Amino acid sequence: MTTQTETRPVRRHSRRPRGGSSRWGTLGRALPWLGPTLVLIAGVVFFPAGYMAWTSFRDLSQFGVDNGPAGLDNYTRLLEFTALSRVLTNTVVWVVGVVVVTVLISLGLAQFLDKAFPGRRLVRLAIIIPWAASVVMTTTVVYYGLDPFYGIINAFFVDIGLLDRPYGFTRNAVPAFLTAMGIAVFVSLPFTTYTLLAGLQTIPTDVREAAQMDGAGSWATYRRIILPLLRPALAVATIINIINVFNSLPILQVITGSIPGYNADTTTTLIFKFIRADRQIDTASALSVVNFLIVLAVILVYLRVVRPMRED
Amino acid sequence: MRRLVSLAAASVAMGLTLTACGFGGDDDGGDGGDGGEGGSTSLDLLVPQYSDGTTALWEEIIASFEEDNPDITVNLEVQSWDNINDVIRTKVQAGEAPDILNIDAFSGFAKDDLLYPAEDVVSSETMDDFQESFIENASLDGTVYGLPMIASARALFYNQDVLTQAGITEPPATWDDLLAAATAVSELGTGVFGYGMPLGSEEAQAETSIWTFGGGGSWTAGDTITVDTPENLAAVEFMKTMIDAGATQPDPGATDRTPMLDVFVQGQIAMAVGLPPTIGQIEERNPELNYGIAPVPTQDGSPVTLGVADHLMAFRNDDDKQEAIRAFLDHFFSTDVYLSFVDTEGFLPTTMSGAEGTANAERFADFLEVLPEAQFYPSTNEAWAATQGALQSLVGQIQTQDAASVLQQIQASADNA
To answer: Where are the transmembrane segments (chain A) (predicted)?
Structure first.
């Protein structure tokens, strides 16, 4: 009897402090295991990001020697940059265009690959290939193919009579930018398709069957049942693509790198030009900070408006 | 458990030290093992890749040096021209500059007070052997910082067969001749283009300089960079005339030099400005090409060419390395070693003994002849690097824009630097 009355309060008693101290206790015990990861994250993420933000307020010589604080000079110089509006427009076109087209094509491909048909395994394999090849390599192949002097794609267009003479697809801002967008879609497809395919396979067949029983057509089933259930997978695919495409340098660098002016630049390639051509490491840092804020804002807006993570 | 904790702590501490080293900024030595004990010194040497044979060539030079100086080791790092500017910038920023660097421009480093004056790192015999024009081009405010290492000049390469076919008997000497000859070739309708004008980002500053120098223009007046001048504008406007007349290959604004010279070698461009190594490329890739070399056409026909000199420079990292650096540089510039480098890479020598001894005297006669008329980039002006960058990324716009406004944009970048 006494034991019982005693144990109860003790138990209840011990529970509370445990809740508090055990959290710290758990953390303390987990720390040695988490430690290396935390050090790594701090070292490769937070430190460089912080250092970048710091340099954006410094006056750096073209060889990186620190000449003291610069206040907001770097940001002012950036805002006064005349081609900025064109570059920002390009960035929007680049990100929205590539991500939307990639997701739309991937939705179709994923649906196709979800069906059973002979040779499906081979087709699935074929779609991974652009993923396995290096982006620079893929891009370079297309770049050479489109070369007006010795490109086979150009020669092919001339041979079949589509063009009178080779056209400089990679030598003019707009066609080169569109070409780069096409390649960006091509290399983004595997990841997106597979993410969506994985999402499709988590949808139980009885849900679809139930919809059919209720008389829903295949389009209505897709729109009302499949697509909402695909929402989490779609969210992951979209966010990762936005970040990836926004920060992508190699494709534009290879395809549009030799084009004069800023008509084919995004903010990311402009950072690169600030460093390489203009030798302004500090302005480039300021633009990097702006770039970082833009991508953060885009993701927040996306999460707010589309609310892809909601469960209903 | 305890061991794990201490291990984690140790790795944290190590991580912090490493970061501290990398971003210290001041060169407080970092690893102390380099200098002192036992009199053994190691030198870091950073060089660009001129050709496929560059690495082997340097390894040979280093091996012969280390044989003579067993207490000095030289660590070679070879980078492509595309990357070397980024690499050196990162190294300087991290306080890990090499001891000796081979690159085109030295003035930025000199302005940041990172370099030894040349006379402190080579013997007076070596110093006196350099040709005067190159030494001038290697000085900043009266002090020589760069050691002129190799030189290059430009000349007009022309396809003899195509010119004959177009009824041109002599290579053009003036801009008007060039325009007429190039237009005549383009009008043949054989798919061969008259003049190759590479204004893509690779080396647009070179092509532009050839034209502006040829029109009596210059990139500097005193200490200021002058891009937007009447002479330069006239030259760039003539370039635009060439483009508009269809005398050039299509889209010159986005054509890079190296791939364009390949097209010349293949015989699809009738005339293009080339360099000494272009001769070797023709021999290797299309020995059948019937070509000639002539001075670059200028506005009035008087010879001018663009000279380029690359430099060796020594960074002041540790004062106890100065002797070792001097030993290495003197070894490099000793006539035999120097000529083995210059001749193998196919460039023009910058020393007097080299000019006498070079095995390529006959082969490069066309270039050696115009060398006294060479004008250089104003690479001692610290705003030049940014100007060059602006020329590379902007001048090609003359294909679609007004020449004057393009020059104004470039001038603005130069003023900003």
So the answer is: 33-54, 92-113, 125-146, 173-197, 233-255, 284-303
